[in-house]
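User: Please predict structures.

Assistant: First:
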Amino acid sequence: MKGPLVDPASVPDWLRPLVEISGKLDSTAFTRFTPPEDELTRAASVLILFGHGERGPDVLLLRRADTLGSHAGQVAFPGGGADPEDADAVATALREAEEETGVDPAGVRPVAILPELFIPVSKFAVTPVLAHWHAPSPVHAVDPGETAAVARVPLADLADPANRFQVRRPGTTYKGPAFTVNGLFVWGFTAGLLTVLLELGGWAREWDRGDVRDLDVALRDHLLATD
């Protein structure tokens, strides 16, 4: 299932374009990867939680603990693998978000489901769940062994050209968008998804796609600047 979960007219004007277009998208809008037919994947969900703070619309992000076995230290949306008790992808996203950030699900309204996306490095088939944070609650890193930091990041900061560039991994074919914002270094799956959502939601601004940096160097420079 993908597309709106609610009447688009019932969500705030700034979020409506994403809800309206959600049913018209397929995975190719976000990624070139598709699950190989002969390879097992694990179902997972992420919660893309949009609120409205003092500086306008924002999104909830977290930084994974440096000690984790996969995607260690990376910035991500709250989320994770499905449990047998989860009723559906929405239930998985809400449960994981509460476990990782302490967000109160009672204040969260799921509004749309995006196409399932495949992450080759972890073999996850991820369902992104868009939600409106109509009654924001305090959030924090619930378990330091899993989550290092939690932040509400204004979309205006993500769209700021000064915070955007591309990263590449020498010796590989990888090149993709990245952000340095609010003390966070965002790249990979999360940065790619945010890039498309900024465009679809009408928040994107022109930025220098010719600014391409080696990933290791950019990450090192970011860590030195934030120490």
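Second:
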Amino acid sequence: MNVGILGTGNMGKIIIEALIESGAISPSNLNITNRTLNKAREVQLQYEKVNLLDTNKDVIQNSDIIFICVKPHDIYGILQENRALFSRDKCLVSITSPISVEQLQTVVDCSCARAIPSITNRALSGVSLLTFGESCSEKWRQTISDLLNKISRPVEIEEKITRVSSDIVSCGPAFFSYLTQRFINAAVKETEINNETATILASEMLIGLGDLLKKEIYTLPTLQEKVCVKGGITGVGISAMEKELGNVFEELIKATHDKYKKDREETQSQFGL
């Protein structure tokens, strides 16, 4: 099976690296291109046997499954320009949340799916979010699930929870990296610890926390109960967080959904759906 990647930006490159390094696909079975070919050439320098092709048309023609990893407003034009090349035996996979599989199906006749990745997939970990179109054959559903299972835990979701699921899975690492950096900065500012030491401690704490959850030793609520002794230091810290954080996460969800709504309106004007 030949896999095509249209777009080698941040997420496109992460998918390429994860699929190759997990052994899910061989570099020689991977066809890539990018609007700026030099960016795709950087990937080929990393994996010499990857096939760097000149155009989207070349990648689509020579691939069985095509991951489209470009900005949402660019997808419609690419599909319209190459719609005849998406024959029924092929599969198109979009990685962007504002475009639904139903929209994809209005333009091309092949099997369609959406697979929203996470930067954590680069470590062959975390979740990838799957939504299949009605036109997606059982063969392709299984193939996509098997591919993504090599680099993540695939979770099938309904369209109505796409944005919030993506907030948690795809945006979440950036959100919690920001919070962790603020935690480190505050520790450095308010105490005598240096940035390097605080960063090591915080990073190892997060890794350990992940291991506790992965091994199902504790749930998030029980973990808090175990650490937060009544009248202790952790409890005082939690109280300070409750006071200062307020509705920050509610506002975060509102902000991402407002942006999602605007993006959806733009894609709806393109797809007519």
